[in-house]
Amino acid sequence: MKKxxxxxxxxxxxxxxxxxxxxxxxxxxxxxxxxxxxxxxxxVSKAGSSEMGKDIYNVTLGHGPKRILLWTQMHGNExxxxxxxxxxxxxxxxxxxxxxxxxxxxINKCTLVFIPMLNPDGSEAFTRVNSKQVDLNRxxxxxxxxxxxxxxxxxxxxxxHFCFNLHDQRTIFNVEGFKNPATISFLAPSxxxxxxxxxxxxxxxxxxVAMNNxxxxxxxxxxxxYTDEFYPTxxxxxxxxxxxxxxxxxxxxxxxxxxRDLVRKxxxxxxxxxxxxxxxxxxxxxxxxxxxxxxxxKQNYDxxxxxxxDDKNQKVDVAFQYEYEVVNNQLISKLVEYDRGDLSSFYAYxxx
Length: 352
Known about the structure:
Layout: H1 3-16, H2 28-36, E1 43-49, E2 55-62, E3 66-71, H3 80-98, H4 101-109, E4 110-115, H5 120-125, H6 146-158, E5 162-168, E6 174-175, E7 184-187, H7 199-218, E8 223-225, H8 235-241, E9 245-251, H9 263-280, E10 296-297, E11 300-309, E12 315-327, E13 330-341, E14 347-351
Helix pairs in contact: 3-9, 4-9, 7-9
């Protein structure tokens, strides 16, 4: 994405992003009114129900031959992608009103299906798992959860060429070689234990390269790459193996943004630039720069107390991380000790 287009979108974002969705805990009742008010050409329907009977929606857009599937909050406590998706809906609405080339090309060249919240039960409880304690992202083979069965049925019926699997990652992740948090991380999942560079993986990598090129103009050296070990039960790995190119986007930390209300903007930019790349191109071969994206490290903590005198009168470093829970229907955070000892090779967003 060129600089002048980024500046234009940034001006739009300041005024027209979805202001009603803020904070870490985003619930079905927060997004349902927004979904039901989406105008034509959006088509909103109920895709199914969660284990606890909560509605799961999908949104269809366009009638073109390129099929793209996007879903968020398969982990209920990972809401940044959901906020970014509604920013994207607002952007597309304004593009349709303006009858822009981007909007016309999107409608005519692509068919998109969005699932804005796959795990509404986990969203309510602010947990990674669903109400039956199933991690949907590790349920692609057994499909124990009704939410997993629903996602797979949509995949099999829609047969997408590309998928966007939107997640959040913990604050521990930094960009390898930098103190910077990995604000956005990408992964082109492997299809086998050998991590074979199949045509599908190369195409997935090429789309990630385009998104990274945009983000480097916005948050240089804040983009990481997940290690690509093959996980036999993982959603992305299995969908990629089935021939549906799957782009994993992980939203992480940015300084002083624990609610991730700024990170969502970078997630939004990744989505816009990714869709723009898929619209404009018919061949996805420029994949080599994917390997230039630094790996994710695990060297950051939320808080480190340096040279703390322990009960043996020895100086140690003590590291803490924020953990979250819902109490009286409110999300609260607390600092929990994670490590102590010589932590000189680790960084923290706050140090004392």
